[in-house]
Amino acid sequence: MPELQRVAFFKDINDVDLAVYERRCNWRRFDEGNVAVDFEDHSTDVYFILSGEVRVLIRTASGKEIILGDIGSGQMFGELAAIDQIARSANVTMLTRAEICIMPASVFLDIVHASKLMCDKVMRLLAGRVRELNARVTEYSVFDLKHRLYAELLRLSLPRSGHPGEKILSPPPVHHVLAARIGCRREQISRELTHLAEEGLVLKNRGGLVLLKPQILKARLEGALSAG
Questions:
Q1: CATH among 3.20.20.70, 2.40.30.10, 2.60.120.10, 2.40.128.270 for 3-139
Q2: Between the CA of residue 152 and those of 135, 141, 146, 201, 223, what are the distances in Å?
Q3: Residues 6+ apart with CB under 8 A from 207
Q4: Which of these, 95, 126, 196, 210, could form a disulfide with 201 (CB 3.0-4.6 Å)?
């Protein structure tokens, strides 16, 4: 089996011989905190995550961080620079130890041009990211801080096992990280979470941050969208 098929992104790509391309790739392990690419780097490699998790962010000249998202096993990053040859638009840092396949831009483009399956997969990925960005732009344009927080909590949460109707963020999110995700200060996050707790909508326990009534948060978002 070609080594590239260890990468989840390639497991269904069977219309090209991946073994021809994998010899031109580099397999590397990163430690937590390592930087894979930095803002305005002129590298063009594409990174496929076999294991671990990374954070994609923009750091302003003043040192403020804007978190664009976290990417985990089976996903990729760096494809934009490979496609348009323009400097990197974000920093990518390891949240955990990670194993990554690093693919030169020329190899990535060769596979995309040679494989209809790969081409379709990349187009769907890019379309999904555009839709996600559209949703974020709408949130920033229409929602105030508390509604942006509701949206982010719902986006990051998963159904809570054994508790129908509830959702959970586990481990509980760090306040400054939530602030960097929605463009505010840590103190504002703390204040809004305190209000939600007083309303009986969230509960912090050893397992995580529990959304006790996520349907109410959804209803508030729908109301804010209608009003906007």
A1: 2.60.120.10
A2: 11, 15, 10, 15, 16
A3: 168, 170
A4: 196
Q: How many angstroms separate the CA atoms of 165 and 159, rounded?
A: 7
Under 8 Å between Cβ of 66 and 60? yes
Whole-model pTM: value is 0.83
CB within 8 Å of 78: residues ≥ 6 apart: 36, 37, 43, 44, 45, 46, 47, 88, 92
The tens place of each residue's pLDDT in the chain, 228 residues long, gives: 668 888 889 988 999 999 999 999 999 999 999 999 999 999 999 999 999 999 999 987 777 788 999 999 999 999 999 999 999 999 999 999 999 999 999 999 999 999 999 999 999 999 999 998 898 888 888 999 999 999 999 999 999 999 999 999 999 999 999 999 998 999 999 999 999 999 999 999 888 999 999 999 999 999 998 886
Per DSSP (E only), the strands in the chain are 26-30, 35-37, 46-51, 53-59, 65-72, 76-77, 91-94, 98-103, 158-159, 167-169, 202-205, 208-211
**What does the DSSP 8-state code read for residue 9?**
G
Q: Which helix (H) or strand (E) holds 154?
A: helix 145-156
